[in-house]
Design a protein that fits this description.
By secondary structure, the chain is mostly helical. It has eight helices and no strands. The chain has one domain. The radius of gyration is 28 Å and the shape is rod-shaped.
């Protein structure tokens, strides 16, 4: 195929447009990979086990400090919201956890769906470039001078094939990345839902136990 510059030049306008979509797709992939695999991620099971031990031992302050040690991790943010209201009643604990979850979950899923859209548009732009290239090829056969037909036909077919290859390549990259990123993002969201519910139940039982006469009623 030659150099990238030649590839883009032969592909024409549609190729240039698809190169912009490729750049946008790669930017989203890098940004979301950093977010869901590093920024928002931590070992949820291990982290929750540490929180549980601290809550059971009634060391809420230390549990909050543990969450503060990972300020960007999504699970730590949600658990911290509940822990900081551990002494304010079951309803407020639940509301705080739910509110923080609603704030964090969109940050995890942000722009992941855009990869699917970029993939679809890239295929359509590639198809447009293919059609344009084929039109040029047919025009060369029907209208060009005999000595120019071969050259123009080759250029038209090359433009068509290059655009097809570019559109499909961009789509494959974006769809594959979407598969991995959306799977990881959903895992983080489900992990938050599971562990935040565990914490809410633990703090709820703790709050009920502190109500005067609650143990006698049981």
């Amino acid at each position: 195929m030659g150099s990238l510059g030649h590839f883009i030049e032969v592909g024409g306008l549609a190729m240039k447009v698809n190169m912009m979509f490729l750049a946008a797709g790669l930017a989203v992939i890098i940004d979301r990979a950093i977010a869901v695999y590093f920024k928002f991620n931590l070992n949820g099971a291990r982290f929750m086990a540490q929180i549980e031990k601290l809550v059971v031992s009634d060391n809420i302050e230390k549990a909050v400090k543990l969450c503060n040690a990972a300020p960007k991790a999504a699970l730590a943010r949600v658990l911290r919201a509940g822990l900081t209201r551990a002494n304010r009643g079951v309803l407020e604990i639940g509301n705080a956890i739910e509110e923080e979850s609603l704030a964090v979950n969109p940050l995890i899923m942000r722009r992941v769906a855009a990869l699917w859209s970029i993939a679809n548009v890239a295929v359509l732009v590639g198809l447009f470039g293919t059609i344009v290239g084929l039109i040029k090829a047919f025009q060369a056969v029907g209208m060009a001078a005999p000595e120019q037909k071969t050259e123009l036909l080759t250029k038209g077919v090359s433009e068509a094939m290059y655009n097809t290859a570019a559109g499909l390549s961009i789509a494959i990259i974006c769809i594959t990345a979407h598969l991995f990123l959306s799977s990881q993002a959903r895992r983080l969201v489900e992990e938050i839902e599971l562990h935040s519910l565990k914490l809410e139940n633990m703090l709820g039982r703790r709050a009920v136990a502190e109500i005067p006469g609650a143990s006698q009623e049981k």
